[in-house]
Fold long-chain-fatty-acid--CoA ligase.
Amino acid sequence: MVRQFEQEYAEQQPGILFLLLLLLPVDHTTPRWRSKEGNPSARTGISMMQTLFTILSGSAVILLLLYRKFPYFVQDVMHARLNIWISGQRAKFLQTMPYFTVLDRFLELAKKQPAKPFIIFEDELFTYGDGDLQSNKVARALRQHAGLREGDTVALFLGNQPLFVWLLLGLAKLGCAPALMNYGIRASPLLQCLSCTSAKVLIADAGVRGAVEEVLPSLRQKGIRVFILGEACSSEGLEALSDKIQQASDQPLSPQLRAQVKATTPTAYFYTSGTTGLPKATVSTEAKAWAAAFLLTHAHVGAQDRLYLTLPLYHMSGLHAGLHGITVVLKRKFSASQFWADCRRHNVTVILYIGEILRYLCNTPAGADDRRHRVRVVVGNGLRADVWRLFLQRFGKIRITEFYGSSDGNTALMNYPGRVGAVGKVNFYHRRVAPYVLVQFDPEREELVRDAYGLCVQVPTGETGLFLSKITARNPFGGYLNNPEQTERKKVRDVVEKGDLFLNSGDLMKIDEDGFVFFQDRVGDTFRWKGENVATTEVASILTMMDSVLDSNVYGVQLPGHEGRAGMATLTLKEGKTLDCSETFAHISHSLPQFAWPQFIRIQNDPELTGTFKQVKFRLVKEGFDPSTIRDPLFIVDPGRKTYSPLTQDCYDSIWSGKVKL
């Protein structure tokens, strides 16, 4: 089915042009139709042919006019057909009794193709059969030694490796949901992630043992059992897990252990910064997991493909590849220098990306082997138009499928025609099943613009507005686990008519007359850097923990040649205090993942406040970090020296010219 749609997509535009050529007006006089004079049947035949040619000629004109007005009509229809087919498949799974889970799909594949390579990792090959057996061992070890039962939550704190996948499958076999934590978080954000999901067990990699031990007293107080992936562990409060997995049986487990799983059952918890505050857990149900599983189907990826996965497995993007029966080449972490060599070595045909990955690849030195690969499709989000063009120019004819979506969102977009720079395309089908609006947003007041009737003001085609998606039974918003306040903040009421309900994406978008959607910016208290959402209030709260800081205002600033926005903090110091640059670096590097570090610091001891005593952020964002226009002291992060250094004009010019990358 996927291959059929791929072929139709590839051939549809030539098909339209060929049809138009067939229907072009024809000169009826050359060559002339010869008939005997006075032969009625001959004259009738000529008349019928002339009528037919007239109809065809008129049809050609109509089709040509329609094609000019709706150049993507065929692609819209094909994409709608694919969506309808996918909806039918999901409906079939939802109606199956007993319920057909995403795990059942994997077990079906493992039974059908046990010897097929499933994961290739650091020269090790694991088949689908291996995945089934290893996850049986994981499930049995956790059931016996951790006492897990259906409905329990287990926090996973580890990086990319096959055992991550075996843990996911093993937990699914027990009817348990994993809470997938960012491998880079530490201290209070780590505790917050564990608290908001009420995790019963924490499973951590040996590489983050220090971070776990730092918060271990709090974990023990909460009654959370901690398992470290290692053969032995002598520390009080920590238990080794690897040896227990190795000793466990690999025999299948009874489906009765997960007998209560249904469409609304949580399959995983993902963490998002959302619009403000510490990390919040959003729920992925079975129904939502099935929707995510079909992402690769939308991109025309099938069982014959090999997918190269360098994205962290705690991201939703990389979790469902195995449901397609494909082979996954799993990388511990992204490496630009090894990327194409890995692709050639393992015959990779599909890549999952975030925009930063493709930009890093374009920044590597050009080589004679740039186009020597078998990659035909890349799927992801956050790709800038200039990087898009450069990537194709350098690495050859590759289909780029950009999509837009989020773990806490209720709708998704896909740029199926491949328009450079667009995050998606809307069509007649999408408007019907997933209604949306773009509305005016006041960036200074950081609020929606409403008319005299209290309704949101929609923006015309081609203008920028805040993207709101309607909350319906078909497109629900599950909110954040145990966080009703933040859940409510994401909702917008009385948008198009009184009583309606929409979800605030926090993204400013623009939609052109062809229906292509272009990302413009983020609003509120979140910006995106290095492919991650950074919550400004979280960073600000960390900074204000320093003894010298009275208040902090965190925001994102644009940099040339970089995706997203770099973090910048304007600090107000306590009276008589000065900024200790080395101490500041030590504090933020200990408390925050690297993507959340402020790249720039500005000292402003007389900040501008609003009428409600909130710090003004809009003007600070506009002023950026130019030392020629800002009189306040400015600093830039210096990871090599583990400090913050004064930002000079030469340094600023080097950043702005692209000579220096952050």
Observations:
- The longest strand covers residues 501-511.
- Confidence is low (pLDDT under 50) at residues 1-38.
